Task: structure prediction
Amino acid sequence: MTRSSSHQYETLCQRIIDQGQWVENERTGIRCLTLINADLEYDVAANEFPLVTTRKCFYKAAIAELLGYLRAYDSAAQFREIGCKTWDANANENKAWLANPARKGLDDMGRVYGVQGRNWLKPDGSTFDQLQKVVNNLKNGIDDRGEIVTFYNPGEFDLGCLRPCMHTHTFSILADTLYLTSYMRSCDVPLGLTFNMPQCFVLLALMAQITGLKPGKVYHKIVNAHIYENQLDLMQNVQLKRTPYAAPSLSINPKIKSLEDIETWVSKSDFEVTGYQAHEAIAYPFAV
Ligand SMILES: Nc1nc(=O)c2c([nH]1)NC[C@@H]1CN(c3ccc(C(=O)N[C@@H](CCC(=O)O)C(=O)O)cc3)CN21
Ligand SMILES: O=c1ccn([C@H]2C[C@H](O)[C@@H](COP(=O)(O)O)O2)c(=O)[nH]1
Result:
């Protein structure tokens, strides 16, 4: 059985504290206590929604962010419109991006995440929709062992504000059950991870729902897991002193039946979490 996701989270935080090494980070100027390699697992079949309970997490914003990725949003203003402010700083305060001639003005994020997932540029100038291809195959029960959506396009890194952190999602079918393996190169454990855990869960649940498959498990593979130096005291002396609660569950509007629904009318209010008991919020500092 999968261990409660909040417990997996606190175990990872403790491992970083016990085994992590200090690494200077040039981009942000803030050092990070860093661990290489972590594996998390979420049981979508059992509907154990992976929300950290040792602090209040903002899952509505996390779900909105995922919807923005699936819709190929490229502007922080689009994310704000659907209830997510997480891209404001990287679009408008990141020094390297502000100085980049590719930036098209206020709120532009450039060719990141969903732009690559939905509009991968081909040499002939046309675009390829990775997500649509995967949805079409899964709907027909096909797993060609390459049901992959990747946002990672090294040839276009200079056209976006940040390289994607959760960069690749691989879908797999066994019998009538859909699995998801999600790869993450760089993980801000106090902040970003509390968004990424529920996002992986929702991505599998939604894809299963629109393809007619049963949801199985998510395998979340993290390479560089870190805590920024200015977050460490709150993590060690506040959050990790708390006892986790049981996992909540998630219900998704059953009227969502297609990728087009996700592109057109779905909003964060189509997702309802029940039984979320959490300790009070912690305002962790954010490194731009
Ligand atoms: N340093 C850093 N950490 C990240 O986690 C991160 C980035 N940069 N840049 C790109 C995205 C943006 N993400 C973010 C950005 C902000 C929050 C954040 O401020 N979360 C608060 C409040 C959220 C709210 O009120 O909606 C939190 O307490 O979780 C979370 C994830 C994740 N990513
Ligand atoms: O979904 C996300 C997006 C970003 N992060 C974190 C991981 C790092 O702390 C920064 C990105 O910095 P890089 O220098 O590009 O690695 O953002 C996250 O945890 N989750």
Remarks:
- The first strand starts at residue 21 and ends at 23.
- The pocket of LAUPNLSC (ligand 2) is lined by residues 27, 162-163, 165-166, 186-188, 192-193, 196 (CB under 6 Å).
- Residues 104 and 114 are 17 Å apart (CA to CA).
